[in-house]
Design brief:
The chain contains 22 helices and 20 strands. Strand 8 and strand 9 form a beta hairpin. The chain is globular. By secondary structure, the protein is an alpha+beta fold.
Length: 594
């Protein structure tokens, strides 16, 4: 785009707070926030820096989303940067995002908390909802626990369903949510559609700022409970009311003074070329309890990026599903005024100490950050050892588990920057068959298809790690080829600890840090698969519950020995008696009953 094209597009944009996206075809190359979208986008007609000039020249369209407040624009910007990883934004290398609340566009809309809303609801927003028609999305919000409390209170008051389409369809009686007062059961016509839609609109009014829609009935219920001397129930309702009244900022939050500060985070940044490292030290009640480092990508061709810009981007992207501390100590002051205003509104004290104990903590954070920016870590060593193009900051591990072909399952675990990210774990039930290669093909093909079809809300990994040897890796690579998903894959077999790649094998020293990274991923994938397999195996054991003399421990031993109820059924009395805890009488009873 040239300057005239930017000015023409800007004239079409609203004068409201929100987020704008410069796009190259379907690729988002830059995301920004603005108090006035039209004015901010117009400023790109005459960009001041080379990086922004190149970004504008590369873009061919500009999209936008309107939000209710500047804070929502700030948080939505962080979500979109994490989702699209735009080339020209400073980016923290993790995939967490702020929660949103979505009302679906079904005949009977469902309410849900999500970090990846319906694609139709991403492009536009109006009055706080990210879609003018169809699915309506509200947020983002900073504290998921508060959102969960409010959504539950809304469901208790208005009975909006939260179930999946599968559970909603073809029911002939209401589910448990109806019995406990969370849903009015439109699935079985316990409420007519007009009444249900009216309740949904009340929920919409709440998210658009009409707090009394929920606060007033909660207050009446609380006063009634107190009058009936149901003090525990009244206290629970009081806590809900506090969360509801504080949801839109009405209750406010006191700004912590230094004497009130229990949780303090110290952030220092080290810069080197097109990358940066932010070190975080965490203090509780004056005691240093945690330290960690995070890789940050600086936009290509950015020139000199100030530390304050890196810290501004880090703060909004890091504290997505983490509680903000009482205070933040910085090595450099964040250069984004809107970020500072947001922290102030959340009651966070911001300081850049120049002397004393706090300055010593900042110096320690700086030392950690500079070490991270200048020294190759285990992931960098892994990149070099495997000849990868980039550092595999995100690794996904895969394993399958079954018992002689029964209850076959697959696991998909995620490690980000060398640490387990359990929010990204997935598992899949596979077809029952005693074929590890076919099972691995199906598992990896399932992940690849979801990624290619944009049905997986997780970013693509930098590396896939298969638990197994050449056979399992071959099956995985075949699945990747068939799905046309271009992600490098390797395998790590147990016992020998030999790394298998498409070009050969690697026998790294036992003390190599990059080998330890792979071992952690492999072992966690194995643990997660076995855990799911055991869960499924135990779930089908209800027939054993009817056999006298068999308790939970004996049942587990029988299933571990024979793999399934079918295996137990085909066992002889002698084979059954070989299991610890099973005597002659119990073995004969099993044979008779099963």
């Amino acid at each position: 785009m040239d300057g005239d094209a930017v000015r023409q597009r800007a004239n079409e944009l609203p004068r409201q707070p929100g987020v704008y996206q410069f796009q190259d075809g379907e690729t988002v190359v830059y995301v920004g926030k603005a108090v006035d979208i039209r004015d901010r986008v117009r400023s790109y007609a005459d960009p001041r820096g080379q990086r922004i000039r190149r970004m504008v020249e590369r873009a061919d369209s500009i999209d936008y989303s309107v939000t209710d407040t500047e804070t929502q624009a700030l948080l939505l910007e962080a979500n979109l940067i994490k989702r699209f990883q735009p080339r020209y934004n400073v980016r923290l290398k993790d995939d967490k995002s702020y929660p949103l609340v979505q009302l679906t566009d079904h005949e009977f809309p469902r309410i849900e908390i999500t970090r990846d809303p319906n694609p139709e609801a991403r492009a536009r927003s109006d009055g706080g909802a990210t879609a003018v028609s169809g699915p309506r999305v509200f947020g983002p919000f900073t504290k998921k626990t508060r959102v969960e409390t409010v959504v539950k209170a809304l469901r208790e008051t208005y009975g909006v369903r939260g179930c999946s389409d599968h559970k909603f369809a073809n029911r002939n009686r209401p589910c448990l949510d109806y019995d406990i007062g969370l849903c009015t059961a439109p699935c079985t016509a316990e409420i007519d559609r007009d009444s249900y839609v009216a309740d949904v609109e009340s929920v919409v009014r709440f998210f658009e700022g009409e707090t009394g829609v929920l606060a007033d009935p909660l207050r009446r219920e609380m006063e009634e409970a107190a009058g009936n001397q149901e003090f525990e129930r009244a206290a629970n309702l009081r806590d809900k009311l506090d969360a509801v009244e504080g949801f839109h900022g009405g209750a406010g939050e006191a700004v912590a003074t230094e004497s009130d500060e229990r949780a303090v985070d110290v952030l220092g940044v080290g810069l080197e070329g097109d990358s940066a490292t932010v070190a975080r030290l965490h203090s509780e009640s004056g005691q240093l309890v945690d330290r960690e480092r995070h890789a940050v990508t600086i936009p290509d061709e950015s020139g000199e990026t100030p530390a304050g810009a890196v810290l501004s981007a880090f703060v909004t992207q890091y504290y997505t599903e983490r509680d903000l501390p009482d205070a933040l100590l910085f090595s450099d002051r964040p250069d984004d005024r809107e970020v500072l205003d947001w922290l102030e509104s959340e009651g966070v004290s911001v300081r850049v100490p120049g002397a004393g104990r706090e300055a010593t903590l900042v110096d320690l954070a700086l030392k950690n950050a500079r070490r991270g920016a200048s020294e190759p870590d285990a992931l960098s060593a892994l990149r070099d050892a495997l000849g990868l193009d980039t550092v595999p900051r995100r690794i996904e591990g895969f394993d399958v588990s079954h018992a002689q072909g029964k209850h076959a399952v697959g696991s998909n675990v995620v490690f980000a920057d060398g640490s387990a990210d359990k929010s990204g774990y997935r598992r899949k039930k596979l077809d029952d068959r005693n074929d590890d290669y076919a099972n691995m093909y199906d598992l990896v093909r399932w992940r690849a298809d979801r990624a290619i079809e944009d049905r997986d809300d997780r970013p693509d990994p930098g590396l896939l790690l298969i638990d197994g040897g050449e056979g399992q890796l071959g099956a995985a690579r075949e699945a990747l080829r068939d799905a046309e998903w271009d992600v490098p894959a390797i395998a790590l077999a147990k016992d020998e600890e030999i790394v298998v790649t498409s070009g050969g094998t690697h026998d790294w020293p036992n003390d190599a840090d990059h080998l330890h990274v792979l071992q952690r991923v492999r072992d966690e994938a194995h643990r997660f698969a076995v855990q799911y397999h055991q869960t499924l195996r135990d779930d089908v054991s209800t027939e054993l519950d009817n056999v006298p003399g068999i308790g939970p421990e004996t049942r587990r031993k029988l299933l571990r020995r024979f793999g399934s109820v079918e295996g137990i059924r085909s066992a002889s009395v002698a084979e059954l008696r070989a299991v610890e805890g099973v005597g002659q009488k119990t073995a004969e009873t099993i044979e008779t009953r099963l």
